[in-house]
Write a structure and sequence with these properties.
ADP-ribosylglycohydrolase fold; 2 domains; 5-stranded antiparallel sheet; 18 helices; 14 strands; elongated
């Protein structure tokens, strides 16, 4: 596919007005809508292309023949992607509550989302549902994934609704990015949003990146990564694999740049892969996606971001038809209220509000067409924060009235009923959705097995029960617990907060996949005791617990 002759188009569709009054940008609303639509198509195409490769190549370049070949029908493969539906939650909040919606309301809306989440998103939402209000929901004291890629893959909307207004990307980051990310994790999304904002008026990827760099705190590691990528591109303009090796050595292998990192999901290395595609794709739509994809790690989200920015510079009406002709415009994006036309309409509606709120205007040209008149103002980056050396918490908590508005819990819907059926009287909290938790008819040769999974890499899934033990006799808590053949976890037993047992359940401790433990509770005879059984993660790989028996025995 040949690169599109972008600079010629750009000259025809917008202008910069200078003079005694403040400098402004002029963009026909029709052209804005066309480019914004293209930005969404780029996101959809990029995540659809890279979807089959996601996290299958870690710290390796994906072989060229392992990248899926683009087919027009693939444009409909992304309707269920979190790369898209999470940011549409934020659009919905703006649509329903207005541009001045509070961060606390944004957190309530995010807490009430029903889709599965991972990494920083999941940790942030768990905190919100517990009543830890933003900004503390993303603070490293409560969220152990602050530098993950999450807001980077969800911030596209913030630039698509703010042409030429990168400050909006910074402001939206402070409102939505702070729900789950901190420091570099939030800056990553602000940078992405600023690239989209610039892409309405600039076609050269280097200039787009340089413009968006101004939205970052200069001393942040993320800004350092952006500067490095530009320097490495200038030093090796025709060798993206050399740039990949340089990024790997610094941002994956150097411990100084892995602080507060969650491995390959870190925003800096994945952000480098986004820029790799934008810089070395050199305007070729398909090559931009392929290069970002071949860098590995989060290899569907990264080409989605790169393609979204590049497609915005072109416009929907000028895209090669193989990227849009088979789009099902009536299909609704998973977990949202939007099909493609509704998505475009709400973005235009918000863009109109944002332009005016920024001090701009909507005028008519000589033909009667509407034109955005956009003020050019300096961008003010957020203050520098370091995820590995965070500032104090805000002690932000939701009020009881606010908590009443949060209708979703941190439990998969099936779990309360599954626990009640398997172990009457016990309750469950902090159970994650991974590995299909619930009641199984059979596992590992045992009938009726309860499956739980930790909520996140730090938060164990907890089964609890409060009861009064009779004063006489010896009281035993008998547990039969299994593990996945590929993983292990720690079984923790507490009584009234006192740890009575901590033991790894895994291949070295469980006979035939099952561990039997009897915990003596006799010291609590005649007392009311709260028992807690915790499925505690050890390495975040196949951490499910398989409960074969939970029994209280009196001898």
């Amino acid at each position: 596919m040949r690169p599109h002759p972008l600079p010629v188009i750009a000259v025809l569709v917008f202008s910069i007005v200078t003079g005694p009054a403040a400098e402004t940008l002029r963009l026909p609303v029709k052209e804005y809508r066309d480019r914004m639509k293209a930005g969404w198509i780029g996101q959809i195409a990029g995540v659809a292309l890279g979807g089959p490769t996601e996290f299958k190549w870690k710290d390796k370049i994906i072989p060229a023949d392992a990248v899926p070949k683009w087919q027009p029908k693939m444009i409909n493969d992304a309707f269920g992607q979190d790369d898209l539906y999470v940011e549409m939650t934020f659009l919905r909040t703006l649509e329903e509550h207005g541009l001045n919606v509070s961060i606390r309301q944004a957190g309530i809306d995010f807490a009430n989302s029903g889709y599965p989440l991972w990494c920083a998103n999941n940790a942030g939402r768990i905190n919100l549902r517990k009543g830890i209000a933003p900004p503390d929901s993303s603070h490293p004291q409560f969220n152990k994934c602050p530098n993950d890629i999450d807001y980077q893959i969800e911030a596209d909307f913030s630039g698509l609704i703010a042409p030429g207004l990168p400050q909006n990307a910074v402001d939206m980051g402070e409102k939505f990015g702070r729900l789950m990310n901190y420091g570099d994790g939030m800056y990553a999304g602000q940078f992405v949003g600023a690239m989209y904002s610039a892409a309405f008026f600039e076609t050269n990827p280097v200039k787009i990146i340089e413009t968006a760099l101004a939205a970052l705190p200069a001393a942040s590691q993320y800004a350092e990564m952006v500067r490095d990528m530009l320097a490495w591109y200038r030093a090796h303009p025709d060798d993206w694999e050399q740039a990949w090796r340089l990024a790997q050595a610094k941002y994956r292998e150097n411990p100084e740049y892995q602080k507060a990192s969650n491995g390959g999901i870190d925003c800096k290395i994945n952000g480098a892969y986004v820029l790799m595609g934008l810089l070395y794709g050199k305007g070729d739509l398909l090559q931009t996606m392929v290069i970002s994809c071949r860098c590995g790690q989060d290899s569907d989200c990264n080409p989605s971001t790169a393609a979204g920015v590049l497609f915005t510079t072109i416009g929907f009406s000028r895209l090669p038809p193989e990227f849009s002709r088979e789009l099902d415009e009536q299909r609704v994006f998973s977990h949202t209220a939007y099909n493609f036309p509704k998505l475009v309409d709400v973005c235009e509606k918000l863009a109109r509000q944002i332009v005016v709120a920024a001090g701009g205007a909507i005028e008519r040209d000589a033909t009667g067409g509407e034109v955005f008149v956009i003020p050019v103002t300096p961008v003010r980056p957020s203050p520098l924060q370091l995820s590995w050396a965070p500032g104090p918490i805000a002690n932000s908590r939701y009020t009881p009235e606010e908590m009443a508005k949060i209708t979703k819990s941190n439990l998969p819907d099936q779990m309360p009923g599954a626990v009640a059926a398997f172990a009457p009287g016990w309750k469950i909290e902090d159970c994650g959705a991974e590995m299909d938790p619930g009641l199984r008819a059979e596992f590992g040769g045992r009938k009726r097995v309860l499956v739980t999974h930790p909520a996140d890499p730090q938060t164990g899934c907890k089964l609890s029960r409060q009861l009064t033990l009779p004063p006489a006799g010896k009281h035993i808590l008998r547990l039969v617990v299994g593990h996945d053949p590929n993983g292990d976890f720690d079984l923790v037993v507490r009584a009234n907060g006192e740890q009575l047992l901590r033991k790894t359940v895994g291949p070295k401790t469980a006979t035939g996949g099952w561990l039997t433990e009897e915990v003596d509770l006799s010291a609590f005879a005649g007392k009311t005791v709260k028992l807690e059984l915790i499925n505690q993660p050890t390495g975040w790989a196949y951490e499910a617990a398989y409960w074969g028996e939970i029994a209280l025995i009196r001898r």
